[in-house]
Predict the 3D structure of the following.
Amino acid sequence: MQLSLSLSKWQTFAWLIGLSLSVPLLFLIVESFQPDSEVFAHLWDTVLWDYVSNTIWLIVGVCLVCALIALPLGWLTAYCEFPGRRFFEWSLMLPLAMPTYLIAYVYTDLLDYAGPVQIALREWFGWQSPDDYWFFDIRTLPGAIVMIALVLYPYLFLIFRTALREQSFKLVQASQLMGKSPSQSFFKVSLPLSRGAIVAGLALISMESMADFATVHYFAVSTLTTAVYDTWLGYYSLTAAAKISGIMLLFLFLALTLERLSRPTQVVHERQSSVNSTTLYHLKGTQAWLASGFCWLILAVAFIVPTWVLVDYAINYFEQAWNDSFFLYAWQSLKIAFWVSVVLIIMSMLVVFNQRVSHGKRVAVPGKLASTGYALPGTVLAIAVLIPLTLLDDKLNTWFEGTQFEPGLLFSGTIFALVFAYVVRFYAIAQGAVESSYQRISPSLDMASFSLGRNRLSTMLSIHLPLLRRGILTAALLVFIECMKELPAALLLRPFNYETLATHVFQYVSDEQLELASVSALFIVLVGLIPLYVVNRSMEQRS
Amino acid sequence: MKKALVTLLAALTCLPAVATEEVNIYSFRQPFLIQPILDDFTKQTGIKTNVVFAKKGLIERVKREGRHSRADLVLTSNFSALIQLEDENLTQTISSDTVAKNIPANFRDPEGQWVALTKRVRNVYSSKARTGKLDALTYEALADEQYRGKICTRSGKHPYNLGLVASMIAHHGEAKTKAWLEGVKENLARKPQGNDRAQVKAVKEGLCDLAIGNSYYFGKMMEDEKQKAWADAVYINFPNQKDRGSHINVSGVVLTKHAKNTENALKLIEFMTDNKAQNMYASMNMEYPVKPGVELSKLVASWGEFKEDSLPLSEISKYRPLALKLIDEVKFDL
Amino acid sequence: MHSLVLENLSYRYDGEAVVNNLTLNVEQNEIVCLLGASGCGKTTTLKVIAGLIEPFQGSVSILGKAMNGASGFIPPQKRNIGMMFQDYALFPHLTVAQNVAFGLTIKDKSARESRVAEMLNLVQLQGYAARFPHELSGGQQQRVAIARALAYKPNLLLLDEPFSNIDAQVRFQLINDIRRIIKDQQVSAIFVSHSKEEAFAFADRLAIMDKGKIAQVGDPKTLFQRPKSKMVAEFLGQGIYIPAQRVNGASVETKFGAVHSLVELGNMDAKGEVYLRPQHITLENCAQGSVKILNQRFMGTEYIYRVTVEGQELEVSHPAHEPLDLTKPISLKIKAHAVNFFS
């Protein structure tokens, strides 16, 4: 028997998801219209513009550095044969598992004036004081840009590489046959054809870097995120904080619009056997070594060095850093990351499917609404989640008044709040990945399925789901890793005595004593490697 | 229908477990600091303790949860959080003779809405090699031209620095404090960053000569193998000994307005103000106990006696918002 | 000098020989078709020629210049090869003119433009310079692809199933057009196809491929008249095998009587089989006829009758303008033709 859901029901699902995920934001917006006793005006007069310009520079800088890292890496591993290519295809994704608060901490420790690198330089050259030489200061805006970019570039790498392999492979082959050198083919064919993918990747990266708090706070770079915290926690004005969040939302919509505009007007549907197991360019000699060297460099800087430092901490501080509850923390982290991934996959599938089968101007609205949580910094999101949930709990308790059942904080005081916050925060990632692989499924497959008597639900389950497998896995992977790393929302919304690896690490990081939490920090990184491995395996098997 | 639902839900959930004796704590302080005391409390009384730790947003959470909040106590790491909880009307009176006996009046809210548990001094560290001990140093002198490019501190917006600036306003007024802030900013060796520990490290490495920081960091660094070298490179100085005394900040506790386990919570507060916990709490983090006569840890005692600024915290805290404004106006952190 | 020489070429994929010891020459200005069923290795051969993949062994040389081996591997972009892809591979982000100009190395702007105009003129797409590929019909896209591939005067043109996406009605018109264009431009070409009709219409010579090897090379007529193997004979047209005995160099005896061959029999064996296509057999009304008609298909210019005679089922072609009277007895006769006699 086939389950049947009418079109209007699909739309209802999509709108329900879109609306419920945007509820926190809605409450925040309502909050921002409250009077705020001139805190906002004061900020406007003093530091707000510095914050705005810092934020813009941060986003632009991170995008630029990510592009400089990810585009060459994507191109090299997609089109060139050189020693280690197959290894780099997946290993260059590893930095995704590294939370920014760890990498920032580790590099500050290494490169600070008081860190081993500068001390060694001083001893070597006999310098006495900071006036004797120049060394870049890592705790600056450029420093923050590099740190964030090192962790975020894999987004662009992944998306760009997939576009190169699946969309423009044949065309680059054609270009090559017409006598174009690799670099000419890159600039004339690959780059313009992958524009949509690149912008999509950069949009994700801009939203992530805008919402970053850990790094900019640690590096004392004042951005809008720090401004939100300052006004809320310093001026005790959630209203002014909500207003600043409003400015950030403007950036978010800008990013989303740019992404939409840059989508190619003509969608290239995946043809069978378009994924080729061969490469285009055989690099030899110096070129091959340069390519390998570049990949190694990025991998080392973004992953090997920080992991090594963590291992070093863990060895030196093992007795203080070991904790019998690690497996419990790791289990709780894994469990919540897993469930959030599952929920998000289902939600994004429903929304994107509705976009595919429904018509009209507003089909994209639910997806956009649901994506708005992405640009909110974790703590702000946590509060935005708390507002409606506590309200709901209150209503619930009133309703049950007089009965022997007292629900208490059924929504806001349980793990539900945490899952909801994660879902709101990371929905955009899931939708992005599912949507882009959906576009590669030719619409004629849908018609074939409908004409063979299948209804929409059955088409989605038996046709789309298998074809989307890779996209879904990618989405799940990204969400999973983000959940493992996510901190501020987890800290604030968790129930009593609930620890994840990230919250455990944070209590030490917050005291600048990462050494004492190095073992759990390593756990976060290692656990993040599991989904990377699984997804990579499944991709290999396909091609 | 409602009744059926109620039975069903009551059967399904074991959520509001009433049976166990427990006390629920929202803590701004890291678990590793308070857990030993809580464990001791459980051992003695059989009352279970449940903790949520966060550095930010807990007050908002208590506020939003309202009458259903399960939090009985909020442990804070500075006095402005205590005052804010009181201002937001999230507290209830701690009526306990034990507490009143243990804690001097200037470390309790006049209305009994909060109690301080430990105190710490806003010290100035000076380089042994380049500056020497500065017994006559004042906070005011930090703006002097002789320290141009020689001072390190953390963000001006951190509660510890805000407290100091608020106390400056309380003593000198807004205009003078602003000028002082500008002077200090002028003297900074680098943009404010890191925590207090990182400032001492910077002095050791020669980046700056003076660092503003809380006393307890010094103690904790002494205990750490690697960081001892940094601490050994500086003297700890108590400013303004010749006049009003050094600025102090406190950590404390409030009993929430909608506490469900009031009795247990009061027991815990009383426990924390008693000799043993006071000693443990203070020495765990190298702070000063609030209860008079409680023994200091050896290390803390070795720093010597000092004079405290006696202006009540509730007075100082009035100027906190203004302090924040001034920090923004002089762009202290930028 | 040969335009292209392939010697003992082999390519393996997953340990399996896809191309196996293949040797082939292409003369200047000649169009050669690699003809074969899918999976016979023809497209792989094309890729090896283009340099998109490196052969496992053997050599490729274009205009006498070695493309691999001792002197090193020449990458595709240095081979000066033109290629037409099955799906044309037009750049969707470039206009027709930009696509055609893509491979040009001429720096001078007006010279470039005039070459593009010349090419568009050649493929009769003068007014389409500013259009984008997705605004064109399939046939037009195809003509842009050929213009693009020829614009920079390649030494060799490779065509990978270029006509398979074109409607049957215009296909042969297009094949003629493109053949004319290639001949005009005096380029040698290798053409990969699985359709013998396309191959006959387009190529000067056919190389029939089977299992990574070339089964036979020659012009269509030779292949038809003297197939070296049953595989070649079968590939060129459907038919049946009838046991036969050699009488002399020009005739064989079958159960339907003697059959005269228009060419000398290739096989010296006394016993064997002849391969009969429907066109080699005729039917006529005849009183002693014992042929039973099973069904008939009208094909426009001819009928195909499916018949059985003496326990043998076979198909016979019959001109449409002189229909048989099916109510009367019918007999069968085998025409004199170039007999394919196999042992």
Summary: Chain A touches chain C through 24 residues (CB under 8 Å). The longest strand of chain A covers residues 80-81.
